[in-house]
Amino acid sequence: MAERPLNVLFLCTHNSARSILAEAVLNHIGQGRFKAFSAGSSPRDNQQPNPLGLRVLQNAGISTEGLRSKSWDEFGKPDSERMDLVITVCDNAAGEVCPYWPGQPATAHWGYADPSEGDGDEAHKLEAFRQTLHAIHRRLGLLINLPSDKLERAMVQQTARDLAGS
């Protein structure tokens, strides 16, 4: 693997829950081998990370510093940081036409149910976020423990897609 970290962009529709969780977890456990980012295909005006997601991250000892909701347009510009892997984490974003990504990164879809949906009380919603965080953490744990040869440019797309079944 190259000396620089593998840049991974997590995409969702609003960039307020699942993609934010994935960004924070990978930056927390990535051991300097990975640098995570997140974005949304259509974040709402003044979109902010979901407060329950931030609380679950903080309860797990994962930093929320610098997390913000943003459009995927920030990463499609020619002068943007080059991504090596782009992973959609919600079905809506997976079905959308993505912008051109400089460097033609590998892509994969890892679907997770939206923990912010539902009519339960706050305790139930918090538990949904905790379970989503756990599922994301488990899959990202597999990714970060792959040998370097599985993360080389030619292999990363198939490897990430294989992990979708994990």
Structure description:
The protein has 166 residues and is α/β, with parallel strands linked by helices. The chain has a single domain (6-160), classed as Response regulator (Rossmann fold, 3-Layer(aba) Sandwich). The chain has five helices and four strands, in the order βαβαβαβαα. Strands 2-1-3-4 form a four-stranded parallel β-sheet. Helix 1 (18-29) crosses helix 4. The protein is globular and about 45 Å long. The model has no long low-confidence stretch (mean pLDDT 86).
Q: How is the secondary structure organized here?
A:
Blueprint: E1 6-12, H1 18-29, E2 34-40, H2 51-59, E3 85-88, H3 91-94, E4 106-109, H4 122-144, H5 153-163
Parallel strand pairs: 1-2, 1-3, 3-4
Helix pairs in contact: 1-4, 2-4
Keywords:
Rossmann fold, four-stranded parallel sheet, alpha/beta, 36% helix, 166 residues
In short:
The protein is an alpha/beta fold and 166 residues long.
